[in-house]
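Reminder: ligand-aware prediction takes two inputs, not one.
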Amino acid sequence: MSNASLQTTTSAPRHVAIIMDGNGRWAESRGLPRIAGHRRGADRVREVVESCPELGVTHLTLFAFSTENWKRPEQEVQGLFRLLRRYIRQESARLVAEGARVRFIGERSRLSRELQALMAGLEEQTADNDRLHLTVAINYGGRDEITRATRRIAAAVKAGELAVEDIGPDTIERYLDTAGLPDPDLVLRTSGEYRVSGFLTWQSVYSEYSFVDVRWPDFTADMFAAEVRGFGRRERRFGAVAG
Ligand code: FPP
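Here is what comes back for the chain with farnesyl diphosphate:
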């Protein structure tokens, strides 16, 4: 959903999206296998998720695996998927109890049937919750998402369900993986890299960005709270002038 009006923030970002970077370097600097960094990273996910409601963050979106991450060594890719399966199995009861609604974005057909089934099961189990909207991006890329949406829009036009002249930004949003979710107010990237790596390409055009020079496995709930509070001091103009 686009937000094109002037807004000076005095409150928490409603939607925070995080690029959880630095797991590999965290592990390598300790002489550990890269997967050890991802494992510690999953613990940080748990802490940050738990802290959202009291900070006033109602939507949290996490970049867990990009369309480019397949280029990593097979062992690391399989380790990451093992970790994601374990996270879903171990965390589902807690997520239900916390009132989290979990959604996954990204292209699913390349994922194992087992992972796809776990993802669909958790989405179904949490569909009626609304205390925290947790979205996890797996095999996600912004260009890939827009390409898939465009194909579906073209198919709808071809089928006579949609007129070309009726296509506007709202139409495109309805066909994106994130349909129904608000745009992120704040996009955070850890590890000191200044890149956005195709994360929420369409949705983040008016987002505030924060690049934190801490590797994700070292990023604590207190650091997250500080970023959320820092957002409250920013002025968002959405292309307008300050009033
Ligand atoms: C980037 O660090 C991180 C990833 C590609 C994976 C993120 C995954 C997790 C934190 C695991 C669990 C996720 C959930 C949602 C439970 P990197 O490996 O690119 O680090 P580097 O830049 O130091 O190599």
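The chain has a mean pLDDT of 94. The pocket of farnesyl diphosphate is lined by residues 20-25, 38, 41-42, 45, 62, 64, 69, 80, 83-84, 87, 136, 191, 216 (CB under 6 Å). We will return to this case in the review session.
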